[in-house]
Structures are given as C-alpha cells and as structure tokens.
Amino acid sequence: METNRQGAIASSVHNNAKALKRHKVRLELLNTQIAAVEEEMRSLIADNKELKRKLEYLTSIPGVSFISAATVIGETLGFESIVNAKQLTSYAGYDVVLRESGNFKGKTRISKKGNSHIRAVLHMPSMICVRCNPTLKQFYNRLKPNKAKPLVALVAVQRKLLILMYTLWKNEENYDAEYEIKKQQKHEAFAARDNSLINQPVS
Questions:
Q1: What is the pLDDT along the chain (203 residues), one digit of tens a residue?
Q2: Which residue range forms the structural domain that includes residue 104?
Q3: Which of 16, 151, 158, 194 could form a disulfide with 126 if both were Cys (CB 3.0 to 4.6 A apart)?
C-alpha cells in the first residue's frame, strides 16, 4: 500500500520533492521493521524443534511461504482449539452465509466475521497456488468458469488451502501432489467393487 502511495506521489502532476523524500524514508523504515519481525519469527521457531518440524509440513505446499505458514499457526495457536475443518473456516471468516431480508433472496458469500489476519496472509499464496500448485490449480480452473468474478474462485482456493494446511498439521504429513488423484482412484475402486457385488447372480 505504501509502495503504491509512493508511486502516486511520484507520478502526480504537482509532486513535491520533499514529500516524496519523506515517504521514501518512511518506506525504508517499514521494510527494515518488517525484516526485523520476520527474523524474530524465524528465531523463535528455530528454537522450538517440534514447531519447526511441524511447520515444514505446511511449507511443503507449493506456494506457501514460511511467513504465511507461521502467521496461520500463530493466529490459531497451532490449531489448538480447532476440532474440524468447518470450525476452522468459520474462525477464519470463510464460512458461507446467505444474505436475505424478507422477500429478498440474496447471493451466498463468505461471512468475513472471523480472523482477518488469516484471510490477508492467504491472499498472495492463493494467487501463487492457482499457477503452480497441481491440486489447487485444477480446483481453481474447474471453479472459475462458474463464478461471476474470478476473486470468488480465488477465495474458495484460500479456504481449501487453509483446510489443507490444517490437515497436514494434524496428520503430520508433507504435501502430496498426487493425493487428489489417489483419492479419486480409491473411490473408483470402491465403486467398482460395490457394482460387482450388486451385479453378482443370486444363487
């Protein structure tokens, strides 16, 4: 936001050199402070072997950075009080609600009543995931044509990404790009077995 503001000041017809200089100093200070906070986060996690080990499950997801994973874990206290995916999506404000009043029937949307820090930190990873993450890219491409706005499909990716992070953390597993394919093959195998049992002649 501040970088955009600096660009706006620089490109203004009535730009002020002193104002631009002051803003540049402010931007440098913010970047320095951000770097310091990130270094503190890395140091805290490095001192906790268990936390460091489990955080690596989340960063094994293509598109999820250390900062994104650490923020989600910090905001949920390591999913300490989360018992299922539904509760997690509600906590983060990704639960779907229907806006309606009297005879007016509105459209469904996410509530945004939950933790805004989680939603903010998952925005950029979701944009990366729809380009490089095999599972979420396929999910996004399947969902996007059915949505009026691409952002709606992107929010759905954020929700799915958060649930994926929760699942890997709880199961203590690394991301498996073939998971969805394996799950589909498993379902197909069960369906084929059930059909064969149904079609067996009765003796």
A1: 888 888 887 777 777 788 888 888 989 999 999 999 999 999 999 999 999 999 999 999 999 999 999 999 999 999 999 999 999 999 999 987 755 555 545 566 677 788 999 999 999 999 999 998 888 888 898 888 877 677 888 999 999 999 999 999 999 999 988 776 666 667 667 666 766 666 666 55
A2: 50-185
A3: 158
Number of domains in the chain: 2
* Same domain flag for 72 and 164: yes
160 & 87 share domain: yes
35 and 72 inside one domain: no
**One domain, residues 2 and 40:** yes
Pairing of strands 104-110, 96-101: antiparallel
